[in-house]
């Protein structure tokens, strides 16, 4: 175990922030680190260059007739900002009370490395072929993975795709996800005058793009939590009775959930509980906004420019392309007069629901039960792994989503962490699954 | 003239940005620079320490029986951001095509220095006592000037207060302002969860303070430009027939105004033209907004915090304290449930209308006519010099507002400038005014 912890710490020290061009070389270094690690385990490794960050593809074929497991993960991480809120630096992994703190610890370096560790533990005489696809652009919408999968569909051929990039339902409760939300990520940039203006001299006549942004955001999602883009909810699939029962059986505790994030309320779409709103209902959130003076004190300025980034989480059967088009048209319609608007597109991903009763799901459930001593629960996730839909479409194989993280892992926020027990059990579950796959 | 230009350039090199604590020593340096300059001209100078930036007070009493002119100005400047839009560095004054480019060139170092230059030109045998109050906190709401004026009312005694911190109606058109808008500047900080959250895992249930900010801003000012705070317009004084006639006589060209700022439209309060909306109607503008991810690309985050700064320009007889109270109550009412709110207060200033037909206004008109070869127009300004109301109240003397700048001087935005012809005519008009004041 110490060996696997040391390796993960080394991996986490590389600040492979894919969103920030200043970290381009660090991202490349993380790819080379994986290449060295997997080569040492007897894999054929290729670091595939893309117009963005490289994809690490590795395979170890022990017997062309043996079953093959394809494992997907990503080695890029979210930006660590705001830095001042980290208790220890994001790229100096630190152990505290059984948890490893570092950007990427849970999302997704810890989870992908758990499978590499399992492969290492089992040795080469496994009787299962293993393939890894580990990308460097998951946090920036995986733009170059889909073309790679498309043009390498045969090479990636496998019996099952195993992905660990999610969370367990609760601490100590092994979980298998069977649904993921899709994603549309867009950005609106607004311009009024051609320069910043004195708010006294011009106030009352000059266009103010901050107000335009606020009016538009208020028209994207109402204060009651309902998304106001026409047709947005049209394609949302109704829940089956089974799904309703499965959701109810989890006895979700909304008050504990609110308290776990320090929130006084859990606002959202009327008529649905917080669990439904994060798992089975679509949503829209502004992820960033800017304009004018942000420093200390006051500045009497009407800014020339303002903008905001926002994303929608989609559920079956919403089509990301159709939603993106509808939102674009709606933005053009609600943009107030007197403002120049630019719309940027930061990627889309399809929502996914996987088969609940495939033989692979059963093996995964068995592997988890053996590791944790209790049966797993079946969950959906509010998050998106857009590439899952692509894999399903292009490779036509079943997907097993075996999340090892926890919801309080602080993904995408300061003090991200990974519980060591989850790392250990994750490695054990992965070993169990690979062994079960090799059984006749 | 060269001597006065060199001196102003030296003054402008000092980055006396009052809003930024990093520039505290530079602000102090600008005060000492004025102290040295005025001492050399035979003034008794005191650099008065305050809890913020110092006030420079200077007086030269040639004869206790002679008329006294009190001149007010400020030596602090706006922050220069965004730096990348300056064609030449903000604190390296540069001459191009008859204009001097630098932060503070027009607002207010050029205008206050024009009076110092006039005093220097006229020499000590003027027959008029001159007093200067030059503060270092005008751009951050003049918090410490009012107590200074209050406790030094006798020492500041004068026949007239002369202020140059505004703009002429148009190039070549000398102007006397008789009205200024008041100001209330506030800030709202909102918090939802206690940390940034993954927008997939939590989207649909987590509070998002950016949306809360947008909803609140949309409720402060509607898309039709009307301010929605209850009672906001109640105390607004109707225009007199004379004022309407005077406004109409200026033949304001809204299309040229829009084109001068590169705006496609001049949105604002319904029922009023752009000139009225900037001069005689109150307004509200968000001056800055922030929250979430502002970098390149995308980050799927729901931020814990967001906020915005906003200011209102007031007209007679709106009372800043009453407006601030009404807005505070309104904010508490419109804040959506589930968010913690903090309200910050960045200062207030009363609106002012000065006497149009005082003997001092007549002398000022004469002084301007002699310098420019044409009669001045009487204007109002959308801007605020909050301290004018305090001076009026505490000293009980008439105020003359003799603006030397132009509306395209880029106050508070990149590439601020001061036309040399305005500097030269400003010095000449100041000399004329002081001479007229000394005449029996």
Automatic annotation (TrEMBL), chains A, B:
Keyword Metal-binding attached: yes
SUPFAM superfamilies membership: Bacterial exopeptidase dimerisation domain, Zn-dependent exopeptidases
Record domain Peptidase M20 dimerisation: where: 178-337
Transmembrane regions: none
GO MF terms, alphabetically ordered: metal ion binding; peptidase activity
Superkingdom of source: Bacteria
Pfam families associated with the record: M20_dimer, Peptidase_M20
Protein name: Peptidase M20
């Amino acid at each position: 175990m110490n060996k696997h912890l040391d390796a993960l710490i080394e991996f986490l020290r590389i600040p492979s922030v894919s969103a920030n061009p200043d970290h381009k070389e660090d991202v490349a270094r993380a790819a080379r680190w994986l290449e060295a690690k997997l080569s040492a385990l007897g894999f054929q490794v290729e670091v595939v260059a893309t117009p963005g960050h490289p994809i690490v593809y590795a395979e170890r074929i022990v017997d062309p007739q043996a079953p093959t497991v394809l494992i997907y993960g990503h080695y890029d991480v979210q930006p660590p900002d705001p830095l001042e809120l980290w208790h220890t630096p994001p790229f100096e992994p630190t152990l505290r009370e059984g948890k490893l703190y570092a950007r990427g610890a849970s999302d997704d370096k810890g989870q992908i490395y758990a499978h590499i560790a399992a492969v290492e533990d089992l040795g080469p005489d496994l009787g299962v072929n293993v393939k890894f696809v580990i990308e460097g652009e998951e946090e920036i919408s995986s733009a170059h993975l889909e073309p790679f999968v498309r043009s390498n569909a045969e090479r990636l051929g496998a019996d099952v795709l195993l992905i660990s990039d999610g969370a367990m339902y609760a601490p100590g409760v092994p979980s298998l996800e069977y649904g993921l939300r899709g994603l549309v990520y867009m950005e609106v940039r607004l311009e009024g005058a051609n320069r910043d203006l004195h708010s006294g001299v011009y106030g009352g006549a000059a266009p103010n793009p901050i107000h335009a942004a606020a009016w538009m955001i208020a028209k994207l999602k109402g204060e009651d939590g309902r998304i106001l883009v026409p047709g947005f909810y049209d394609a949302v699939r109704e829940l089956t009775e089974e799904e309703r029962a499965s959701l109810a059986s989890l006895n979700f505790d909304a008050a504990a959930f609110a308290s776990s994030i320090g929130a006084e309320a859990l606002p959202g779409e009327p008529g649905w509980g917080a669990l439904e709103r994060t798992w089975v209902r679509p949503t829209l959130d502004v992820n960033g906004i800017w304009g004018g003076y942000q420093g200390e004190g006051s500045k009497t300025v009407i800014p020339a420019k303002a903008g905001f980034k926002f994303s929608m989480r989609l559920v079956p059967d919403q089509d990301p392309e159709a939603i993106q088009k509808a939102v674009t048209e709606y933005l053009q319609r609600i943009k107030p007069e007197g403002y120049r608007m630019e719309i940027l597109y930061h990627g889309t991903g399809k929502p996914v629901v996987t088969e609940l009763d495939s033989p692979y799901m059963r093996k995964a459930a068995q592997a988890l039960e053996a590791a944790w001593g209790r049966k797993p629960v079946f969950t959906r996730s509010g998050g998106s792994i857009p590439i899952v839909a692509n894999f399903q479409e292009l490779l036509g194989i079943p997907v097993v989503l075996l999340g090892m993280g926890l919801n309080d892992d602080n993904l995408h926020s300061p003090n991200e962490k990974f519980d060591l027990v989850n790392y250990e059990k994750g490695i054990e579950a992965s070993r169990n699954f690979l062994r079960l796959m090799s059984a006749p």
